[in-house]
Structure to design on (793 residues):
């Protein structure tokens, strides 16, 4: 019964989302206020329906309803309750349902919190969001129905992939989807503006908040993904330049460019077309990412069951969304022409430079990700190695780090580049001294690492200096916090990439090895029984100068339904370094094991940097200036409507 | 020239130089880091890049895994059911490495006809075959059928 209701609600939701697409738009075209006002209630009901479907799927997992194909494929009787709940979004069908649920939530939130928009603007925005939602609901109904049944029901399920039985699974996908989907608001606004043929600062101010939120979620999702990969995959890496990681990184890069350009276009009538184009790009890239992940057209460590029809369907959606928006842009871009000129010596120019740098980075990553597909079409199989991305990214981020403090220093509208650069001298001196100090303390870092460290200190000292010289208001504080985040990230990354120690060794029980001034004693491996698996648990005692600092217990987990074991690393986290130990395999009958011992300096600073960045984006939401301007806009709208009636 | 024009010209020149530099770097980075994928059949026919890394994919042949007793040295045979290539590797194999299952390795071919892997790739999911390995086996099947 429940699966049928879930499915039925989805079909109803499809109908409603199509209504949401058509009705407010017709209302706008015919200038009928009552039709335009229907958008809001439609959005609420749509969300309620989709949410009920999603909750039903969770219930089916909790109840272990193995008549539902998706449930028995990804759950089992032995699976603990918390993982049964998260298994809901553990594979393709359920994760798309979650995607739609979050999409519908964003639509409902837009409908609720849009007092600063005129009714006809809101009508168009909701209509575009309705179209996007309809596309994805059609996708799930036609290609990936999570409510499909199997009769007779199997006695037990196939179990959830052990890698997904983890805390990371609870939080990483939802946050990432909040980010992906959140970018659709800025996209919808852009398309709505293009349809209307005008975009004013109220629109951009309104969409800026949503973009900041989406970007913050996306950042959090990416950080969690990186952290999860680090502790769960047992390889000690934090970023693999895997196509699926790139799929989440691409919209992030474009989104970063977007929020910087919005800072300009919200203040003055400049870069409006560029803002619109970036918003279209950012969301299109998140749909493209979905295509890459779900179509199986690219070799990746993230393996969703590949299905060509799904790929084609998403490609179709991408063609409609991105193609439609870009066509509209080509037709209407001249109406968005900027009326105010921008002086070369100004913050505006530097923000523009920032967006250009990030877009170049976006396309570099995009090319590296798509090239294997292009080559494959020509009959040659290739892959693009991580060194390509590493090098390109390093080179592109040099001008970013170099210019960031200049952008913080120079004034809006009409500044002076020369004197701003002069004012930065003290910060550069501090940065050079700190870099030299780091060099001396760590004992030699290669060129690339040194450049990164210098960049980190340069950004840090300048941001700090500027912070104490200016009047503090929310958007300035937010910006400073985010830029400190950049510094922390750069520093952490430089240290972990260029000064880490890795060793794969064969260890007999009782054997002691030395690494990085510490001794590691291998005590052997024993079997332990846990909740729903058994594990071979090793014991490694880490000491420094005769005192024990940690006893690490890495595991090789064996799940009853899986042939292969799973490596669970054991990590001793620290402010300045992580000690990371994981088990390879048993090499001989004498109890000798292959053991991985890594020392990862400052790795946590990187993630902390990311958290600072998103905190900055959230602080920026509380800008008093924007609140004041929005209030003024609301008052004005109120007056107009009173004057009319 | 007026100062504004001068600035504008400078801007254009800078953008042009930037784009040229970026393209040059891009092409170099790309050329050095592009990695070809070869199946055992192709390698057997001598069709593989010499003195540089490439990827090999196929199935791990049953009972071909050999381990040294006192180091992390391993060797195994990758097959596409038409031809075999011996692979050696120094390090820890991924969890999902199994005889009779798909594998992808990155490394170089030596003069002795042995593939020296620097990396053996892991996959997240055991119900999943690396597409490259699947393609290699598929291609070999066709090749065999064609020659029969």
């Amino acid at each position: 019964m429940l699966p049928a209701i879930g499915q039925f609600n989805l079909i109803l939701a499809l109908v409603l989302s199509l209504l949401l697409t058509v009705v407010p738009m017709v209302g706008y075209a015919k200038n009928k206020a009552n039709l335009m006002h229907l958008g809001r209630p439609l959005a609420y009901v749509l969300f309620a329906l989709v949410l009920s479907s999603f909750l039903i799927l969770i219930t089916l997992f909790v109840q272990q309803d193995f008549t539902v194909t998706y449930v028995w494929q990804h759950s089992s009787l032995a699976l603990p309750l918390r993982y049964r709940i998260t298994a809901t979004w553990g594979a393709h069908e359920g994760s798309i349902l979650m995607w739609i649920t979050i999409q519908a939530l964003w639509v409902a939130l837009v409908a609720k919190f849009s007092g600063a928009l005129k009714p006809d603007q809101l009508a168009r925005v909701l209509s575009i969001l309705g179209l996007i939602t309809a596309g994805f609901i059609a996708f799930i109904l036609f290609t990936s129905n999570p409510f499909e049944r199997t009769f007779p029901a199997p006695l037990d399920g196939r179990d959830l992939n052990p890698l997904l039985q983890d805390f990371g699974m609870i939080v990483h996908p939802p946050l990432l989807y909040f980010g992906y989907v959140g970018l659709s608001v800025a996209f919808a606004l852009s398309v709505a503006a293009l349809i209307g043929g005008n975009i004013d600062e109220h629109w951009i101010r309104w969409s800026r908040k949503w973009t900041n939120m989406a970007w913050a979620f996306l950042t959090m999702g990416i950080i969690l993904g990186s952290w999860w990969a680090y502790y769960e995959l047992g390889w000690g890496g934090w970023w693999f330049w895997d196509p699926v990681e790139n799929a989440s990184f691409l919209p992030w890069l474009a989104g970063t460019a977007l929020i910087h350009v919005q800072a300009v276009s919200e203040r003055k009538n400049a870069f409006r077309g560029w803002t619109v184009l970036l918003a279209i790009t950012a969301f299109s890239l998140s749909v493209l990412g979905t295509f890459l992940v779900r179509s199986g057209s690219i070799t990746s460590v993230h393996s969703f069951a590949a299905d060509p029809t799904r790929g084609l369907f998403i490609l179709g959606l991408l063609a409609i969304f991105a193609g439609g928006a870009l066509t509209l842009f080509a037709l209407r871009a001249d109406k968005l022409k900027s009326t105010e000129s921008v002086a070369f010596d100004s913050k505006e120019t530097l923000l523009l430079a920032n967006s250009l740098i990030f877009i170049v980075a976006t396309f570099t990553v995009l090319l590296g990700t798509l090239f294997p597909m292009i080559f494959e079409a020509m009959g040659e199989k290739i892959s693009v190695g991580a060194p390509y991305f590493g090098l390109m990214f390093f080179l592109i981020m040099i001008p970013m780090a170099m210019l960031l403090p200049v952008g913080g220093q120079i004034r809006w509208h009409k500044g002076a580049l020369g004197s701003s650069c002069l004012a930065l001298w003290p910060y550069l001196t501090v940065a050079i001294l700190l870099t030299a100090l780091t060099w001396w303390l760590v004992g030699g870092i290669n060129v690339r690492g040194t450049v990164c460290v210098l960049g980190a200190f340069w950004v840090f000292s300048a941001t700090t200096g500027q912070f104490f010289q200016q009047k503090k208001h929310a958007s300035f504080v937010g910006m400073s916090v985010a830029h400190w985040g950049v510094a922390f990230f750069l520093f952490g990354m430089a240290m972990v990439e260029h000064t880490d120690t890795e060793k794969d060794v064969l260890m007999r029980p009782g054997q002691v090895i030395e690494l990085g001034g510490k001794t590691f004693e291998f005590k052997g491996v024993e079997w332990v029984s846990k909740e729903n698996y058994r594990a071979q648990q090793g014991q490694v005692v880490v000491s420094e100068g005769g005192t024990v600092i940690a006893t690490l217990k890495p595991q090789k987990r064996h799940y009853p339904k899986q042939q292969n074991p799973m490596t669970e690393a054991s990590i001793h986290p620290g402010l300045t370094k992580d000690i990371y130990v994981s088990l390879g395999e048993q090499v001989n009958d004498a109890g000798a094991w292959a053991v991985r011992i890594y020392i990862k300096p400052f790795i946590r600073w990187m993630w902390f940097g990311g958290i600072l960045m998103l905190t900055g984006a959230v602080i920026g939401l509380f800008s008093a200036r924007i609140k004041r301007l929005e209030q003024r806009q609301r008052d004005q709208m109120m007056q107009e409507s009173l004057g009319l009636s | 020239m007026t100062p504004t024009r001068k600035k504008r010209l400078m801007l254009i020149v800078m953008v042009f130089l930037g784009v040229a530099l970026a393209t040059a770097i891009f092409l170099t980075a790309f050329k050095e880091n592009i990695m070809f994928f070869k199946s055992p059949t192709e390698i057997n026919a001598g069709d593989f890049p010499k003195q540089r890394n490439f990827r090999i994919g196929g199935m791990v042949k049953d009972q071909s895994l050999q381990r040294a007793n006192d180091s992390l040295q391993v060797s195994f045979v990758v097959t596409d059911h038409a031809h075999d290539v011996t692979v050696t590797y120094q390090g820890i194999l991924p969890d999902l490495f199994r005889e009779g299952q798909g594998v992808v390795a990155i490394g170089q071919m030596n003069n002795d006809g042995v593939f020296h892997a620097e990396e053996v790739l892991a996959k997240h999911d055991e119900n999943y075959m690396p597409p490259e390995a699947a393609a290699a086996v598929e291609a070999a099947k066709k090749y065999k059928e064609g020659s029969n």
Observations:
- The domain at 1-165 of chain A is CATH 1.20.120 (Four Helix Bundle (Hemerythrin (Met), subunit A)).
- The first strand of chain A starts at residue 382 and ends at 384.
- Chain A has a mean pLDDT of 90.
